[in-house]
Amino acid sequence: MQDAGENVTPIEPSRKLSDAIREVKNALADRDDVVVDLREAHRMRLDLLAAELAPVFADVPADDDSFDFVVSAGLQPRLWIDAVTHVAMGRDRRTYRFLKDTRIGRVVLAESTEMKTVADHVTRYVAERVVERQRMMEGGPEPALTGFARPPVAEAEPPLRAARQGGAGFWPALFSTLGVIAAGALVGLAVAAVLFWDRLTALKISF
């Protein structure tokens, strides 16, 4: 009977853990270099876009602090326009993506490889925000308690009470209607009596 240990393949002495660790470190270093290169490339393009938009940012009123206009650092640099909108680069490192965070998720306001196209969309967005703020300041915000100052609404009359009131007014209305009908009948009888009286008078004269 053969020993079970005879079927085990011995590990080659040349394969060491230190060599594997060195390979992993080299791979991570190469990947980090790629990540750094991508980040730097993204930031460089966003810096160019920020320079293109510098005159627009300079024209924003000084008292309007709702805009950011800053390129953030990180794994994915972003040119922040305000708290909910920013420009980021696509995966191809050439496409500018103007994004907005909403309640239903993130939406794309503009996307193009042309920097000027995205800059035009950002300029339009900034202009709309500035005009919106000016109109709000000129018109004045609506008081928060306006809804509580509305005049009270008359409550609907209970059906039972309305029915009772309708029943109480039924008999006077009926008597009034019958009175009108009786008066009309009397007038009709009087007219008929006058006409027949004239005919009877004419018959007596003929006899």
Oligomer: single chain
What distance separates the N and C termini? 166 Å
- Kindly provide the radius of gyration, computed on alpha-carbon positions and rounded to a whole number of angstroms: 47 Å
Contiguous helical run count: 5
Q: Specify the helix fraction band.
A: 55-70%
> What spatial order of strands do you see in the largest sheet?
1-2-3-4-5
Task: Write up what this structure looks like.
By secondary structure, the protein is an alpha+beta fold. The protein contains five helices and five strands. The protein has helices spanning 17-52, 54-59, 115-139, 159-168, 170-206; strands spanning 67-72, 78-82, 85-89, 96-102, 105-112. It is elongated, with a radius of gyration of 47 Å. The model is unreliable at 143-157 (pLDDT under 50).
